[in-house]
Amino acid sequence: MTDLAQRMMMDASLSRTEQAALAVGQLAEQAPPGARLGTKKELQEQCGVAKGTFNEALRILQSRGVITVRSGPGGGLFAASPTPIARLGNSILSLDAAEGDVADAVRIRDALDPLLVEDALQYGSAADIARMRVALAVMQEAVDAGDPTGFVRANWDLHAAIARVSPNGILKSIYVSLLDLIESHTVSVEPVGDRPLSEYIAERQQLHVDLVDALDARDRDRALQLIHEHNTTQASVH
């Protein structure tokens, strides 16, 4: 059994993507900065995961500054020198999959939303708003298809797009890492109360459309009102 395969077995409660990210991340952190870890194919085979799963693990590690990927002769995966912000993201990634951790992550994410809305109001460009509207379109497709889980995942893509407007690197790193943690442990969606799920999701879609419209119009009062409503009438994710 390879070293990476042994690392993959350390915590069976994590998803395969998280296991691969943690295994390769630990390998990179133990190597000198700039050290070559191997080719993507070699490391994927050692982890024993599908190509798509491995690529998603690499995306997570790259976004946190743990590895760099180079193409061409002599290319492959290399250990980066993680910044303090990257190490903070890694600590969130390694949280346990227990329900309490996910609930805590949702609570912290909700508390950060108003800060990100304020930054989006101040720094959002036309291109940023356009990216948000692309995410809204994907959410609408999920509404039309009656796909609540797809809707919630597209919703997180929208919130990630809002977060990336912020110039605050620490805030972005924490928020996006929390989204990754929540998303990786979500298998179903349940509404609040006794309302039909389809009706609830359609209402949530309109709330997000209104939020992006408020950001586009630089309407601070409306945007903050909507994000407060967003965080007090959410569905349960499991």
UniProtKB/TrEMBL annotation:
<dbReference type="Pfam" id="PF07729">
    <property type="entry name" value="FCD"/>
</dbReference>
<protein>
    <submittedName>
        <fullName>FCD domain-containing protein</fullName>
    </submittedName>
</protein>
<keyword id="KW-0805">Transcription regulation</keyword>
<dbReference type="InterPro" id="IPR008920">
    <property type="entry name" value="TF_FadR/GntR_C"/>
</dbReference>
<keyword id="KW-0804">Transcription</keyword>
<dbReference type="InterPro" id="IPR036388">
    <property type="entry name" value="WH-like_DNA-bd_sf"/>
</dbReference>
<dbReference type="InterPro" id="IPR011711">
    <property type="entry name" value="GntR_C"/>
</dbReference>
<feature type="domain" description="HTH gntR-type">
    <location>
        <begin position="12"/>
        <end position="82"/>
    </location>
</feature>
<dbReference type="InterPro" id="IPR000524">
    <property type="entry name" value="Tscrpt_reg_HTH_GntR"/>
</dbReference>
<dbReference type="InterPro" id="IPR036390">
    <property type="entry name" value="WH_DNA-bd_sf"/>
</dbReference>
<keyword id="KW-0238">DNA-binding</keyword>
